[in-house]
Write a structure and sequence with these properties.
mainly alpha; 70% helix; 9 helices; Tetracycline Repressor, domain 2
């Protein structure tokens, strides 16, 4: 259970399935009581999703500031936004790899899809683009979210696919109204 010299947990522990992580262990490592843990989260999965969502939210806020400042082409803004999401996935690579390999950890993938769907809905609600279809926006948001999350899954599963390949593919598949 001891940490390495850089303060990180050994790789075996970092990649342990989330279903095997007890609240008591998390609380102990954080130096808080279980009651304090439960004031902020109902489970280790929920806590992890809060952390991941907060990081993705920072990326979205950065993209929104770039959009408000102007000066970037629509394609460049989308490329930068996709880059930020890919950077997020790289920052949390161990979590993503674990969630792909363990059916019990699929909640992380579902949370990623949910986050992307929420972002897609918000994007459609605040942008008026002539190519934005009149179809059901919830269905459109789910389609976009699952496609993007699926592309990330394919990238993570194949070492031969580079980050740039994922970004290029995401941009190639982005709907015209996204820009």
């Amino acid at each position: 259970m001891g940490g390495e010299s850089d303060g990180r947990l050994p790789a075996v522990e970092r990649l342990r399935p989330l279903g095997c992580v007890a609240v008591a262990e998390l609380a102990d490592r954080a130096g808080v009581t279980r009651a304090t843990f439960y004031k902020h989260s109902s489970s280790p999965l929920e806590l992890l999703i809060q952390v991941l969502d907060a990081d993705l939210d920072r990326g979205r806020e950065l993209e929104e500031r770039r959009h408000a400042q102007g000066g970037l082409s629509a394609e460049r803004r989308v490329r930068t936004a996709v880059d930020e999401v890919v950077d997020h996935v790289e920052r949390f690579a161990g979590v993503g790899e674990q969630s792909l390999g363990d059916p019990a950890d699929r909640g992380v993938y579902k949370a990623l899809v949910s986050h992307f769907a929420h972002d897609a809905m918000a994007f459609m609600d605040r942008r008026a683009h002539p190519a934005l279809p009149g179809a059901n926006r919830e269905v459109i948001a789910q389609f976009v979210a699952h496609g993007f999350a699926g592309a990330i899954r394919a990238w993570m599963a194949d070492d031969a696919v580079a980050k740039g390949d994922l970004v290029d593919a995401a941009l190639a598949c982005a709907p015209a109204w996204w820009t």
